[in-house]
Amino acid sequence: MILEVCGVSKAYGGVQALRGVSFGVDAGELVGMIGPNGAGKTTCFNLLNGQLAPDTGEILLEGRPVAGLGPRRIWRRGVGRTFQVAATFGSMTVRENIQVALLSFRKRLSSFFETAGRLEIAEADALLGRVGMLDQAERPCALLAYGDLKRVELAIALANRPRLLLMDEPTAGMAPEERAALMELAAGLARSDGTAVLFTEHDMKVVFGFATRVIVLHSGELIASGPPGEVRADPRVREVYLGNA
């Protein structure tokens, strides 16, 4: 088990965002986390990558506690993350964006502005090759289509060789054909590298088409977990989220 979340709770004042949530993600799994707005998905992600600390409960990464560590320390433990809105350095080339991530991971960022053109080129290009963006390595990110930006962001997230990859609404803003291509890429990475992938998504075709397992949050509580078909047929999940879809 790569990730274990054990009885985690988080409140903001009098609002209970998460209440005793427990689940796990194993190596090679692609787990979809779904639920209505306000269900606690973003809070859960922010706990997993260190932006927040839980009030109670444990978070284990390959058996080691990480709850309460800052984002940088958790990143160095092997947790990568992509965001709903892709963020890159627009004035830099695609390759330079990957170089920055690699240099930061290897604690060589102070060298970047002096010798960037000669540092980590081979590995940056290898990562770009994995996400299908090597042919655009020299283009400024500001000129890329949004779907291509999402691929660059994924390459950046892979720079620390993550054991756990968190993808926050990875297909938001993408055309339907781009969504399938990105998720096929994520699924392939999970299989080939044994990476545990946890993603949130509002497109149910993406969730039930690609997740190996689905977990459902509602009002801060985990109400269902299991194979996609089982979760889709769950009466409570249909009542609070899926309806007759």
Can you characterise this structure?
This protein has 2 domains: 1-78 and 162-245, Rossmann fold (3-Layer(aba) Sandwich), CATH 3.40.50.300; 89-161, no CATH class. 37% of the residues lie in helices and 24% in strands. It is built from 10 helices and 10 strands. The strands form 2 sheets. A 6-stranded mixed beta sheet has the order 6-7-8-3-9-10, sandwiched between helices. Strand 9 and strand 10 (221-226) form a beta hairpin. The mean pLDDT is 91.
Keyword list:
245 residues, alpha/beta, Rossmann fold, 2 domains, four-stranded antiparallel beta sheet, globular
Largest sheet: 6 strands, mixed
Say which CATH homologous superfamily of the largest domain is assigned. P-loop containing nucleotide triphosphate hydrolases
Instruction: Give, in spatial order, the strands making up the sheet with the most strands.
Output: 6-7-8-3-9-10
Poorly predicted residue ranges: none
Instruction: Kindly estimate the percentage of residues that lie in beta strands according to DSSP.
Output: 15-25%
Terminal Cα span? 32 Å
* Count of individual beta strands: 10
Q: Taking Cα atoms only, what radius of gyration do you get, to the nearest Å?
A: 18 Å
CATH topology of the largest domain: Rossmann fold
Domain tally = 2
Q: Helical content, roughly?
A: 25-40%
Given the structure, what is the number of helices? 10
The rough form would be described as: globular
Q: What structural category do the secondary elements indicate?
A: alpha/beta
Q: CATH class of the largest domain, anyone?
A: Alpha Beta
The assigned CATH architecture of the largest domain is: 3-Layer(aba) Sandwich
Mean pLDDT: 91
